[in-house]
Design brief:
By secondary structure, this protein is an alpha+beta fold. The chain is 15% helix and 24% strand. It has five helices and 16 strands.
Length: 297
Amino acid sequence: MSNPPSDAPPLGPEELGFYWENGYVVLPGLIPQDDLDRWLAHLDDIVQERVPRAEGMLVMKDVMVAKGKVVPGSRLEAVAKIQDYENDPVLDTYTTHPKILDAIECIVGRDVQTIHTMLINKPPNVDGRHPLHQDLLYFPFRPADRIVASWTALERVTKENGCLVVVPGSHRGELLAHENPPHIEDLNMGYFGAADIGDQLEQRVHLEMEPGDTVFFHPVLLHGSGRNRTDGFRRAISAHYTSLDVEWVWKQEDFAARNYRIVRGPRSGERWAGARTKDTGAKLDPLDLIKGFGRKG
Ligand SMILES: O=C(O)CCC(=O)C(=O)O
């Protein structure tokens, strides 16, 4: 698939058709190298503590480093991910990047809020696998079709360094129960895997991507990533978005409360103040979706 001319919507009928059919679409070369370089340099500044850490931002250590199983060769080799970077003025330029938002708008409509941000750093020498899972597990909003992720390769991502894998068409299934997969000894915190996926692991497709290539994917799509078997890093930056007509469906209104910020449309700059209080019918308890974690096991 080639890029449409710059004045055309980033997702034409062909790309949109592919998205709804398969649950994802890759736009090659969407983000210029200058932007990637700025985010990578800033990641280094954060890790080396050359810049103040933004409010609410979490720098997560890799579990093998935390357990003392791996001695990192540098500060960056100790980091698994940066979570919730939206108060960081440099990284947040990803969340509001016009090229990203133009594509998001094609998928969920004109009014867009961001609900989650992260930068995933997969260093060499650690396990770092992310088992197949569905992101809807982590989000209180419905309908799922009005939620979408963007994930941009900050460097070349390959099968060898642990690129994303997706199961095409799996977004048409249900949200499954998730668990800490028993066969992975060193799993990073919160990296749950979908339980009982049958033979879907065999149907996975590896998304090898060049720097700046961006994949947009549905929150019910089964996806994950493998081990980094190289001696370099595998880094990517990502954000999740919804339209504004979503409803809050979790029982616990404050569970994992984030800064739900409107980034596109006439209400840009405001915070989401949607249907938390409206009667949305039967509500979900997020912990019930995680086997062995909540009250149900
Ligand atoms: O970047 C990765 O390795 C996996 C990212 C992912 O699947 C996620 O965080 O939902």
